[in-house]
Write a structure and sequence with these properties.
Layout (H helix, E strand, L loop, with lengths): L10 E5 L4 H11 L3 E9 L5 H14 L3 E6 L1 H6 L20 H11 L4 H16 L3 E3 L4 H4 L7 H14 L5 E3 L7 H10 L22 H10 L15
Parallel strand pairs: 1-2, 1-4, 2-3, 4-5
Helix pairs in contact: 1-8, 8-9
Amino acid sequence: MLNNDPGKKESAVALLSGGLDSAVSLAIAAGEYDVSLSLFFDYGQIPVGKEEESSRAFAERYVTEFEKIELQWLGHISSSTMTPGGDDTPDYPVEGHPDDQARVSRAVWVENRNGIFINVAAAFAVARGATVIITGFNSEEAGAFPDNGGKFVDAVNGALEISAGAPVRVESPTLSMRKKEVVERGLELGLPWEYIWSCYRDGERMCGRCESCVRLKNAVGGTHARASIFFEDDR
C-alpha cells in the first residue's frame, strides 16, 4: 500500500550489515523514502565489531536512527563458520569447481538469518508506522544464498500481508543488480567507500580471501572506489 499523499515520503526501516549491498541500498532508499531507522543485528558473528562500526557510520552518514538488536541465540545454534559454533571460515576458491564454490557458500550461510531479521524489522516498522523494510540483496549472490533473491522477497512479502497487522513490505533496491552494478550505483551516489566492511573475518583489514571479500574485490576493481577499500594483501 503506497502513501496517498504525494508530498509525503513513505517511512522506511533499513537493515544494515556494513557491507556493500546494504550500504548502497540505504543510499538509494535515502533519496526515495524517509528512512527513520537502521537496524544492526548482533548474532555472535565473528566480525561483529567491524560490522557494527561500519553500520553506525553509514547510519550517521544517511541521518537515520540506529539500533542494535541482540540475537546471540542464533549464533549459538547456527553451524555457519561466521558464528562461534562453526569451523574456521574457508577461503573462496576463485578458480575452483562450482561444486567447491557452492560448498564454501553453504559453509558461511546462516540458516534463516534474513527471515529472522525481516520479521524483527517488520515489528519495528509497524510500531513506527513505517511501510517499507529496506534490504540489500543482489542477483549475483542469490545463486549462492537462497534467501537473497526475488523468490524470497515475494514469499516474505506474502507472509507479511498476513502476519504484520499493518501494510509493510520488503524492498531491495539492488535486487536485480550484480555486484559490479551495485558498485556503479554507489559511485553515482557518492558512497563513502572507506566505511565498508564486507569480510567474514575479524582482522585489522578485510582478508581479501573469503567469499564476501572476493566478490567485493572483483566488483570494485578498476574503479576509484578501490582506492578507499583495503585488504590484507594490499600491504
